[in-house]
């Protein structure tokens, strides 16, 4: 059976660390005479991540990870990235649907409970899964502020707020890991959000 993307990450060994970056397409320039700044904002917004696994001696636990990396064929394949650090919202949300237009950073939600700034949500599933962060507290239904801007238009879309994930791909064509003389594995990789 052929590999179908996006892949789920192996669960044999958890992350030792995730460095998540919110990247904005913006530029600034400063006059050398007046020091006044000009800032230009473009619509590009993207997640980037550096993922590390703990040093681990069990080859049976690490081989699924090495096979996962190799099967992605560099940035060709995609995978779903989530983390136990953002698995549950800090808010009290128990139900939420969202409507909004592609490119908007504000969406209309019909919601029971609250979402707090810093909570993560997911829109879509499978290859259409998009990871967003709530940037302003929201209590009940109303206007929800999120980052990145919506990639697609949604009408009454179900919001996933427990174990949210997004679709990512490897940032490089190269997959690597190390095994020292004692058989201890070391593995880390960089990823970027898959935007089509």
What are the defining features of this structure?
mainly beta, 196 residues, Phosphorylase Kinase, domain 1, 2 domains, globular, single chain, Elongation Factor Tu (Ef-tu), domain 3
The gist of it:
The protein is mostly beta strands. It has one helix at residues 59-71; strands at residues 7-8, 17-30, 37-56, 79-81, 95-100, 106-112, 114-115, 120-123, 130-134, 138-139, 142-147, 154-160, 166-170, 177-179, 185-193.
Would you write up a description of this structure?
The chain folds into two domains: 1-82 and 168-196, Phosphorylase Kinase, domain 1 (2-Layer Sandwich); 84-164, Elongation Factor Tu (Ef-tu), domain 3. It contains one helix and 15 strands. It has one helix at residues 59-71, and strands spanning 7-8, 17-30, 37-56, 79-81, 95-100, 106-112, 114-115, 120-123, 130-134, 138-139, 142-147, 154-160, 166-170, 177-179, 185-193. A hairpin with a 6-residue loop joins β8 and β9. It starts with 6 loop residues before the first strand and ends with a strand.
Question: What topology emerges from the helices and strands here?
Answer:
Blueprint: E1 7-8, E2 17-30, E3 37-56, H1 59-71, E4 79-81, E5 95-100, E6 106-112, E7 114-115, E8 120-123, E9 130-134, E10 138-139, E11 142-147, E12 154-160, E13 166-170, E14 177-179, E15 185-193
